[in-house]
Write a structure and sequence with these properties.
scavenger receptor activity, glycoprotein, two-stranded antiparallel ribbon, transmembrane helix, membrane, 38% helix, alpha+beta, transmembrane
């Protein structure tokens, strides 16, 4: 009987262990399923899905694009060796609207191909008080900078070109003008978005015969147009997008069918190629009437570097590795450990450990590092999880903050960055010259994180981590990006350029001289008191880094979307707690039952013995009662016999009778 009880105890213990394990795993499985559902929702495989609609058009989420410019207060003194004095103008705020058109999937629906149009609309209400993007500031002239770069090829022609061209530009904005300078008076709109009818480029068309050495080198003259580039293009028409891009971009769709759940919106190709190339030598002439700048032939994925160069495309950086396209976008971050939680192999310990990471104590931490592709600098940059700003939360939902990785992103001068920079630049400065075709350099706003020696030379900058840090806030369980702040500053390096004075009878001047002002400019020798470009065969480390302006692009998740996310997370947690409580209670009940059976192993045998004793007692009672009945019967029979004998005796004494007995009684 004891064996049967032990079997019951074992059964209860096994059931208790089963529910105990499920109490441990059920919340993790709920969390894992939630993350898979989120990843599926972020998939772009269905055109009727919300993720697809949000990806192709920001009809609901507002995106703001802010620009600020440094207004130089002492441009002439800078050329004589003084430190720059600047005043920040802005921010000038634009609403950013994007739309991806002519979208199509590849055969396996693993990639989505598209053209992307971005339109920027100025919003005076969100901008600085009384500001308009037509405000005129003193800034660096990008066209003048490029021509100065090639002044050693044709110094006389460049000298006249700048005198004549800058005079026309000054007249355009009603500014004074006296000599050649890399600085110019421009509106914020023209400086940032570019402009048509640039006076310097118009002059270049007039004296092109004298600029032959420069024309074979400069991308501005190869375009044969009057379009002066800015730092960004406002794609006001789809025709402009298709003309400038030529080929479609593409991203992974993130479909589960292809084993890439959670990797939606991850950049895989850039204008049809796996590496970033820029149009350094336009092959398609500009269209002045339609205001479409010159561009290169549409890029083809199968081109190697030599073939791409023949069509005007060159690597954005020095090597294929540095120019490769990788990293995700700032719209969705893959939830941590999502694709590990599959019982497809490995040890039981490994699988349980993978699930354990989804428990409440672990699941609120995102990955340590992220790699995001930033089109403004033509490369991916690293972000690291940080607690420098403390714990971040919104609507009670804990968030993870990722900031620009200081040791990876735009840290120059080390072995890793050489292939990007090509030249040794100061710490915190990224060389974009090859990528954009102009001597430009990228930093954080106000030279934040740049070598302090460089910061000290600029009067009027105030680096502030709170205002100038680059970061994004992520809800790690869903991968939802709650807030983004992409901040980038453009700078230029100024060197000493020696431009000779021209005589009045110089053939370059001829009869094109419009007035004495240009004649005086052309006759004056331009020899500034600035560092030379080269020192001991290397780029001069003492070159003056001059800030131009910076952008701040980003968004905050709408409050209603954040509310929905908080409710979804709360529902998942509540369901997980219910499952945990139910499984834990059942495990506890069966554990108590098992403990009871194990603690009283003889109770069942005792009960059976007790019943046996009772049975024996009953039997004895029955036997006693039978004996009693038998005795009673014997006494009754004896009494009857005695009575019979008595009667017979009486008869014998009164009258003798003869009795015939056939056979004796037994």
């Amino acid at each position: 009987m004891g064996d049967r009880l032990y079997f019951r105890g074992h059964a209860c213990a096994a059931i208790a262990v089963f529910f105990g394990v499920w109490a441990f795993l059920a919340p993790a499985i709920v969390e894992w399923d939630f993350r898979n559902d989120v990843a599926a929702d972020a998939s772009l495989t269905r055109k009727d899905g919300s993720a697809y609609k949000d990806f192709v058009k920001n009809s609901k989420q507002e995106v703001f694009y802010k620009i600020s410019y440094f207004d130089f207060q002492n441009p002439d003194e800078i050329l004589k060796g003084a430190d720059p004095e600047v005043v920040v103008r802005g921010p000038y705020v634009y609403r950013e609207y994007y739309e991806k058109f002519e979208t199509e999937f590849d055969g396996s629906r693993s990639r989505l191909h598209f053209f992307e149009q971005k339109i920027y609309v100025f919003d005076p209400e969100l901008s600085c008080a009384g500001c308009s993007d037509s405000d005129v500031i003193t800034t660096l002239d990008l066209v003048a900078l490029e021509f100065l770069e090639y002044s050693y090829l044709a110094p006389r022609a460049i000298k006249y070109l700048l005198c004549e061209g800058q005079a026309r530009n000054a007249e355009r904005v009603g500014a004074s003008y006296s000599h050649v300078s890399p600085f110019a008076r421009k509106s914020v709109r023209d400086a940032h978005w570019g402009m048509w009818g640039d006076g310097t480029l118009e002059t270049a068309m007039d004296i092109l015969e004298f600029l032959e050495p420069v024309a074979n080198t400069s991308r501005l003259l190869k375009s044969f147009s009057t379009h002066a580039p800015g730092f960004e293009t406002n794609y006001t028409s789809k025709r402009l997008v298709k003309a400038l891009y030529g080929s479609k971009d593409a991203v992974r769709t993130g479909g589960r069918k292809h084993g890439r759940a959670g990797k939606a919106m991850r950049q895989r190709r850039y204008m049809g190629a796996s590496v970033v190339r820029s149009c350094s030598s336009p092959t398609v002439p500009a269209n002045e009437t339609a205001q479409i700048p010159a561009t290169c032939d549409p890029q083809q994925p199968e081109w190697d570097d030599a073939e791409a160069l023949e069509h005007g495309w060159s690597l954005a950086y020095a090597t294929d590795f540095a120019s490769r396209v990788y990293g995700g976008s700032a719209g969705f971050v893959q939830p941590r450990w999502l694709n590990r939680a599959k019982f497809s192999g490995g040890t039981i310990y490994h699988n349980l450990a993978s699930f354990y990471r989804f428990l409440a104590a672990k699941r609120t931490r995102g990955p340590e590092h992220l790699a995001l592709f930033v089109s403004s600098i033509y490369r991916a940059i690293g972000f690291s999880r940080t607690l420098e700003d403390g714990r971040i939360e919104r609507r009670g939902v804990p968030l993870e903050r990722y900031q620009l990785d200081r040791g990876y992103a735009i840290e120059a001068g080390n072995e890793y960055s050489v292939q990007f920079d090509q030249l040794t630049t100061p710490s915190g400065v990224l060389n974009l010259t090859r990528a954009v075709g102009l001597p430009l350099y990228a930093t954080a706003p106000h030279l934040y994180l740049v070598d302090p020696a460089v910061q000290a030379r600029i009067d009027g900058i105030f680096p502030d981590r709170r205002l100038h840090n680059v970061y994004l806030d992520v809800e790690p369980r869903s991968g939802e990006v709650v807030a983004v702040r992409e901040r980038l500053q453009f700078n230029a390096l100024l060197f000493n350029y020696d431009l000779p004075g021209l005589l009045e009878d110089d053939p370059i001047i001829g009869d094109r001289l419009p007035g004495d002002r240009v004649l005086e400019c052309a006759a004056e020798r331009a020899n500034w008191t600035l560092p030379d470009r080269w020192h001991d065969g290397r780029l001069n480390q003492d070159a003056l880094i001059v800030p131009i302006g910076y952008i701040s692009e980003g968004y905050d998740l709408r409050d209603d979307s954040m509310k929905d996310l908080a409710e979804d997370l709360a529902d998942v947690d509540a369901f997980a707690r219910v499952l945990f409580g139910l499984c834990a209670c059942l495990s506890g009940l069966f554990s108590l039952a098992a403990a009871y059976y194990y603690a009283h192993p003889l109770d069942d045998d005792h009960d059976h013995d007790h019943h046996d004793d009772e049975g024996r007692g009953d039997l004895e009672s029955k036997k006693s009662w039978s004996a009693y009945l038998c005795c009673s019967c014997s006494r009754e029979k004896k009494a009857k016999n005695d009575l019979s004998d008595s009667l017979l005796h009486q008869e014998d004494t009164t009258e003798p009778r003869t009795t015939m007995v056939d056979e004796p009684s037994l």
